[in-house]
Structure formats: C-alpha cells, structure tokens
Amino acid sequence: MTRPNTFRSGPDERGHFGIYGGRFVAETLMPLILEVEKAYKAAKADPAFEGEIRQHLKQYVGRPNPLYYAERLTEKLGGAKIYFKREELNHTGAHKINNCIGQILLARRMGKTRIIAETGAGQHGVATATVCALFDMPCVIYMGETDIARQQPNVFRMKLLGAEVVPVTSGARTLKDAMNEALRDWVTNVADTYYLIGTAAGPHPYPAMVRDFQSVIGDEVRVQMQELEGRLPDSLVACVGGGSNAIGLFHPFLDDPSVAMIAVEAAGHGIEKGPLEHAASITGGRPGVLHGNRTYLLQDEDGQIIEGHSISAGLDYPGVGPEHAWLNDVGRVEYVSATDQETLDAFQLCARTEGIIPALESAHALAEIVKRAPKLPKDHLMVLCLSGRGDKDIFSVAQHLGVKL
Amino acid sequence: MNHDTGRIAHRFAKLRAEGRAGLVTFITAGDPDLETCRTILDGLPDAGADLIELGLPFSDPMADGPAIQAASLRALNGGMTTRKVLDLVRGFRAKDGATPIILMGYYNPIHAYGVNHFLADAVEAGVDGLIIVDLPPEEDEELCIPALKAGVNFIRLATPTTDDQRLPVVLQNTSGFVYYVSIAGITGTASADNTAVGAAVGRLKRHTDLPVAVGFGIKTPDQAANIARIADAAVVGSAIVTRIADGIDAEGKARPGLAEDVLGFVRELSAGVRKARI
C-alpha cells in the first residue's frame, strides 16, 4: 500500500476512510443522517459554535486537564518516561464528556428536543445524562441488561441526573444490543430525536464528528508536552473499544512521523481462544458492515455478529471505529491487545504506584505500557491516555480478585 | 426504466390483468426450524401468497421489531446459514417456477459470503429480488448495481421521511417494485392511517411506473384489504411470524399443525386482498 501524503484528510465526502466507514442505515434514517451531516458542517464553519464548546469544556468539564509525569511508575518500569493525559479528571470522570458537549450543542442547533444514547460501561450514558440535565432535555439511555447488572453505580448516577435508563433484553444484552435498540428508537422518533452516539463509529458523519470533538485530547497533549519537554512525544498509547479516546489522542499527531502510536484492544481470556473470548475486532476480527459502517468486526463465517468478551464493559463491542480500521491497514497505528489478567495487574499497579485507580478500559493501555516501557530508553517520551477513572469498576475488580465487599 | 422480464414483473402484470392487488408474505428462512419452514414456504402460493419475502436471518436486525428479531434468533439457533437459505429457495423453485422470491435482510451476511459469489448462487437458486435494509442509495455500488447486472431486482424501501427531493435518488436504481414503509419505525409495531398511506402511494406513483407495495403494521385481513384498495400489493410480515411463534411449545419445538395454522392465516389474508377490489 502506498503511503498517503496526509493521514488527516479523511473521511471523503461519502464518509469513507479507505474502504471503511460509509452510511449503511435504513432509508428512514438516511434523510436524518444527511441532516446531521449538513448541520455539523455548518456548525464547524461557525466560530460561535467552537467558542461555545471551548467555554463549556473550560468552565464545566474543567479542561485543560493535566499531562502528568508518572514518576513512580516510570522508575518502577525503568525505561521510557511516562506521562498520563488525565482525562479521568474531567467532570463525570472520563473523556466521554468532550464528545457529549459537542453533540448536544449540535442537537440544540438542529432544534432537536429529545436525546437518546447507548451505553456499555455507563460512562457515555452518564456523560449524556449530564449534558441533558445541563441543557434541560429529556434523555433516554439504552443499556444492556448484562451491563446494568455489572455497572450498578453508573445506572444510579444516570437516574439521579434525570435520565430514563431502558434495559435492553435482546441479543447478549450488552453494548451492541443497546446500539440496536437506540437505532430502533431513532427510526421511530425521527422528527424530534437526536441520537448522541458515544464513540467514533456508526454512520458518517459520526466517526469524523466524534473524532473532532475528542481531538481536544491530542491538541492539549501537543501544547503541554511542548511546555514540559520542549518537543513532541515519542509514543502515544490508548485503549480501543469503539476507539474515541484513542482517535482523539492520535489524530492531531498522525502527520508527525516521529510519533509512534499504539492502540490496545481487549484480548479478554486470550485472542487465541477465539472470538467468543475476546473483544479485539482488529487483532482478531475481519471487515464487515454493522451499525452504519464498514469496519473490522467480530463475526462468524456466515457474517453473524459474535458477542465478544472483556472484563471491561466499555470495550466489549464487536466493532471498532472505521478510521481505526483504516489506520491499521495503512500501518500508521499499531494495534495490539491486553488480556483481562494483564489488565487487572496493571490496574492494581497503577493504584499502588501512582495513587490513581484507572478505569478498566484505560488499564488495558497501561498493561501495554508495562510491557513496552522497560525496553525503551529513558529519554523516550510516552503518553498514556488515562481515559477514565476506575470507581465504577471497583465492584467487578473485587469480584475478579475474590474479595467480598 | 429497463424492460424487466423477471418473475416479479410478470407477477405484477398478471395481477394487473386480474384487476387486483397482490399479497406479499414474509417469513424468516429457517423459522421455527428448517423443515417446518420448508412446509410453510412450499404451501404459500397455494394459500394465496402472490410474492414471497424470505428473511435472511441476521444477529442484529436493527430495523426489526421484537417478532422478527425473535424469528431471526430462532432460525440462527437452529443452525440457519445463508447457504441453507439458498438451498431452501432452490427446493421451492423446483416445484414452483412462477412465484417470485425476494430475500430480505441485512448486508453483512452477504458481505461475508462475497457479493459476486452470493449473486451467482442466488440467481442459480431462483431468487428474484433483494431487499437489503441497511443499503441506502448512497451505497449502491456495494450490492445494488452488481445485483442489477446479475439480473436480480433490487427493491428499495421508501419511507415517510423520503421527501420529494430525495425520492428520485431512492427510485433511481430500484427495480421490481417499490416497497413503501408506511410508518417511521420498526417492523410489527404501529399501523399507518389509510388516508396517509393513500396519499403517499399517490406521491410515489407520480415519480415511478413501478408497482408499489405497502408494508409495516398490516396485521389483519381487513387491514390487508384496505391497503389492497390503494396499493399494488400489501406486505404482511410480523403478523405471520407471530403466528409461527404462537405455534411453538415451551421447548421451542413446532407443535403439530403449526404450518397448517400459518397457511390458514395466509388464506384469510389472501381472501381479504382478493375481495378488496371486487
């Protein structure tokens, strides 16, 4: 494959990143998808929209969050100099709010009066419920029954924020089924409803739009690293489910050839155990079409979608954002994976060494750093996207560690 | 419009000659099990189905309501595959050379099979048309254009959200007939108001010479008859599939007489459609 002049020009007019992306939705939704695209284009060209987002990110979310030198972890691993981008310090405790602020402002511009969203771990659901409370809009969150059981604190948070949480009982009752149900709601309530998708996937323009809203992560890292070290980082590491925190960190650096990028998928019980046992769509899946886009999917020979497994509810989605699929194929980003066990180990290491309890999702990226940093020189600047905090995960971690709370 | 010599065009010409609307019936291939499905499928023409939509089961039917979601799951749990769906069509075609069969489903199973390979096998098996819910005109190069080249009709859904400006885009590569989805929503839920449907069919007719079939929310012979007065065909899906679900025992097995009961219901629907214009 020939190397493109830029890695940052995608998608094309029809929403394609190479062969990935597109708009694979039912006709009922198509006019609405085109309307979202048109509204987003107009908003992007309007400095007032950008100003509104900036103001909310600063005053409400608390940005910029620090680029923190993880000194003890760096010493412990004895190699690369490790920085954490502290997305877990955002209001609501994860990077998800960056995208929600952008999209709800767009929904308001479009005159929509009702918000729906899907959620897996509940972080996007909480972030959506939060902005809906802030902007006084009714909010319906679809969440698989299985996820509701393992993420009780977030379910209660959403309810406190005034959202209606609808348990999804179809399929495996996790994130993919929640997305199916949200699409069914949208197709039924096209006139007044805006679907606030939580990751950089789905039909065009969502993957590009969510990426744009999350790129504040990488933009800040660029400036902060310049201030701290006077140069660009050498490598960036982030976890990937749908891939919104990863694309947000990576995208501003895609055309800086000296910056290596590593995305970490969830290997669950191990990729070699087959697609029922992991959630690594790129490492262990193949291209297909689901939820509005062509991308890498966990699927059987007959094209039926397989429900993956991960210890982390935020990563066990059988697909991945289409831009990631493309970045993998062109070789710009390296896609690797971490198992549940490696993740649990990294989770505990981070808590004890840095006094930070990371989200299980982010702990996947940490697991890769534990593998990689010791082999790198001390002047290698490595940035980890600490995409969320782990308070929501303490119950499931306790269970995995055999601790009764 | 191309001169269409396929079974779908022939069937609508025959219906026009008879001065009546057609009944399009939907069942999911492999539901509730392969053998019972085969019995139902083979009995449909005699029970009065003028065209047959056969659902290609998919794990994630985003545009379908609970009834067809459950039918898909039953079929997949019973080991249904795309290859077996085509075998089912081949078996039907050996006995019936005239009743059009339209496969309805989602793109990924066809994508996984390989588009060209799938089209070649579908034509050989005797498939006449495709309705692929998640392939709008914006993605025509994926399957629609190759299907037309292979001689398979690509039937598009037009919906209440398809406005006059967009309609020509939707109709451009549509062939066989146009399927008007009478409600903004998923299958098997709300029913549309007849006046609104009549107006929508009239609007479609101003844009195309193709026959217009109307579906979503048609559950009874009377509702089918009402649609048959204003459209070229009435499509009944979830109501038939629900009838199949009602005939399953607690272990998920088909009770004796399930196929006869389902075909009996189709006879009632057909009687409704046939009396509509007399």
Descriptive account of the structure:
- The complex is a heterodimer of chains A (405) and B (278).
- By secondary structure, chain A is an alpha/beta fold.
- Helix content of chain A is 42%, strand content 18%.
- Chain A folds into two domains: 17-57 and 96-210, Rossmann fold (3-Layer(aba) Sandwich); 62-93 and 214-400, 3-Layer(aba) Sandwich (Rossmann fold), CATH 3.40.50.
- Chain A has 16 helices and 14 strands.
- In chain A, the strands form three sheets. Chain A has a six-stranded mixed sheet with strand order 3-4-14-9-10-13, with helices on both faces. Chain A has a four-stranded antiparallel sheet with strand order 1-2-12-11.
- Chain A is globular and about 55 Å long.
- Chain B is α/β, with parallel strands linked by helices and 278 residues long.
- Chain B has a nine-stranded parallel sheet with strand order 5-4-3-2-1-9-8-7-6.
- In chain B, helix 2 runs parallel beside helix 12, helix 10 (221-230) runs parallel beside helix 12 and helix 11 runs antiparallel to helix 12.
- Classes of the chains: A alpha/beta (405), B alpha/beta (278).
- Chains A and B meet through strand 2, helix 1, helix 8, strand 11 and strand 12 of A and helix 3, helix 5 and strand 6 of B.
CATH superfamily of chain B: Aldolase class I
Largest interface: A-B, 38 and 43 residues
Quickly count the domains of chain B.
1
| CATH hierarchy, class of the largest domain in chain A | Alpha Beta
How would the blueprint of this fold be written?
The complex is a heterodimer of chains A (405) and B (278).
Chain A: E1 16-17, E2 20-24, H1 30-44, H2 47-61, E3 67-69, H3 71-77, E4 81-85, H4 96-109, E5 114-119, H5 123-134, E6 139-144, H6 145-150, H7 152-160, E7 164-168, H8 175-188, E8 193-195, H9 206-214, H10 216-229, E9 235-239, H11 244-250, E10 260-268, H12 281-284, E11 286-290, E12 292-297, H13 322-329, E13 334-339, H14 340-354, H15 360-372, E14 381-385, H16 394-400
Parallel strand pairs in A: 4-14, 5-6, 5-8, 6-7, 9-10, 9-14, 10-13
Antiparallel strand pairs in A: 1-2, 2-12, 3-4, 11-12
Helix pairs in contact in A: 2-4, 3-14, 4-5, 4-9, 5-7, 9-11, 10-11, 14-15
Chain B: H1 7-18, E1 22-28, H2 34-47, E2 51-55, H3 66-77, H4 82-95, E3 101-105, H5 107-113, H6 115-125, E4 129-132, H7 144-149, E5 153-154, E6 157-158, H8 167-171, E7 178-181, H9 194-207, E8 212-215, H10 221-230, E9 233-236, H11 238-246, H12 258-275
Helix pairs in contact in B: 2-4, 2-12, 3-11, 4-6, 10-12, 11-12
